[in-house]
Amino acid sequence: MNNKLLNQYYKNGYVRLGKIFTNNQLEKLKKRVKDLMLGKIRYENMFFQLESHDGKYSTINKNLETFVGPSLRYRKIKDLEYDDLFNKIFQKKIVKFCSERLIGKNVSCMRAMIFNKSYKNSSILPFHQDVSNDWNMSLKPKFTIWMSLNGANKNNGCLKVINGSHRLGVINKGHLIDEKNIKLKGMNIEYIELKSGEAILFDNHLVHGSDKNKTRKNRLAFTVCLLDGKAIHLKTKKKYPKIYGKGAIDKKLISKVKKLKKIPNKVYH
Ligand SMILES: O=C(O)CCC(=O)C(=O)O
Question: Is the CB of 222 under 6 A from ligand 1?
């Protein structure tokens, strides 16, 4: 990321990174998502969340964290920092560079996840920030990379952001925010349309959300949310999975996870 891109990030709260994965890699990633959703590839302990049955955000079962049978309506799949294909994002020069410039040499992953807008009954994700005061962590996550796997546009519920809102700091305890909130007055909503493989990087204070998917095809995004390697979970005192620096997830661990088909224990357990 050169200084021009960094300046855009500081000014708008986000910056476009361009295409991160090749078409060939994208095909493999999409196949992996399908295999995970359909249970053709299983990892014990991997986080899954289903979309709500009626398309309402309020009825999503947030307590369900596991695979409950084949479905293309999973809304979230996490722990992908341990998956051999998805972990490759951390080898990308641009990701390493942004992490070092914005965080440092020791970097952990709060989550690496598929964010799917289901082809059927998808919910509206209300505007929010990803710095919630309710998250039991010693340091807040810094930024998120949001990458489209199969194209994102207004029709299928692309990411929408409020340009510049990151400069307001933590609003309303750092999570859900009414878009009529007085603090956001005069700020513009931008719809982040992306082609397959293209990504943006955004500050976790940036107010963002997404509308319903009005198409008959899933809108698939892969997102990684990163933070300082020193951060710990305040209840368990555990550190988040390291991706750069001492103790980072390496090829050996990835192969072990693949062989055992088991995700290591979570930071919050
Ligand atoms: O993909 C979406 O619809 C929203 C993504 C989001 O909120 C996030 O990555 O933090």
Answer: no
pLDDT in tens, 184-202: 999 999 999 999 999 999 9
Among the atoms of ligand 1, which is closest to the Cα of residue 158?
3
Whether 162 is in the pocket of ligand 1, judged by its Cβ within 6 Å, is no
pLDDT, tens digit (0-9, with 9 covering 90-100), for 69-101: 999 999 999 999 999 999 999 999 999 999 999
Which residues 6+ apart lie within 8 Å of 227 measured at CB?
Answer: 103, 107, 108, 109, 110, 137, 139, 140, 141, 142, 240
Q: Is residue 266 part of a domain?
A: no
Q: 36 lies in which domain range?
A: 3-52+71-260
pTM: 0.96
Q: How many domains does the chain have?
A: 1
CA of 141 to the centre of ligand 1 (A): 14
Q: Is residue 62 part of a domain?
A: no
Whether residue 65 lies inside any domain: the answer is no
For the chain, the straight-line distance linking the first and the last C-alpha, in angstroms and rounded, comes to 36
